[in-house]
Amino acid sequence: MNFRTSRARLATGAVGAVVAGALALSASPASASSSNGFISGGGSFYDDFGDEGTLSTSSHKDTNATCLWQIILYAEGVKESNGTQFDHADIDGRFGSNTAYATKQLQKAWGLTQDGKVGTKTFGSADDKWNPTTRAGELEFRSTGSTDATKYKLRYHGSRYYFDVFRTADGKYRFYHKNVWHYASYKNNSGCS
To answer: 67 and 86 in contact (C-beta within 8 Å)?
Structure first.
């Protein structure tokens, strides 16, 4: 290893540490977000989902927030009610019986109560349930973006698939589905179906 390579690695490590520290300290702690209308967070992104509103067949059931949850189900590769894997065609932003069934399957895999509702424990497990063997179930910092809408680029690692999301400067989560970036809103379904 030559001096230039070692120096570059040290510089990269130092920059990564500074960015991680800034993420942990730059914003206020995460707070319940359904009241502000969006899945959102502040401070460390490892606890952003643990205080979110409930998603279920009776709560926020036709929204972009449900769409983001369905993308997590897809990334985790859980089974849907017909026995096949929850697939891309199942992502429609509508929390019906199939999404509830897949949610129960994920809750079982994560050792949670299997009620088919995405409450604070289930949603909270999605951003901090790291499996070192499969590298699944956690948000990972990727980079700092160049605009307020792309402030922090994060990656969700599922057991089967990963996907990227952005957390905006004001903490709102954005995700990509059907060739469009969507805000993870509790109030509308802007084209996930």
So the answer is: no
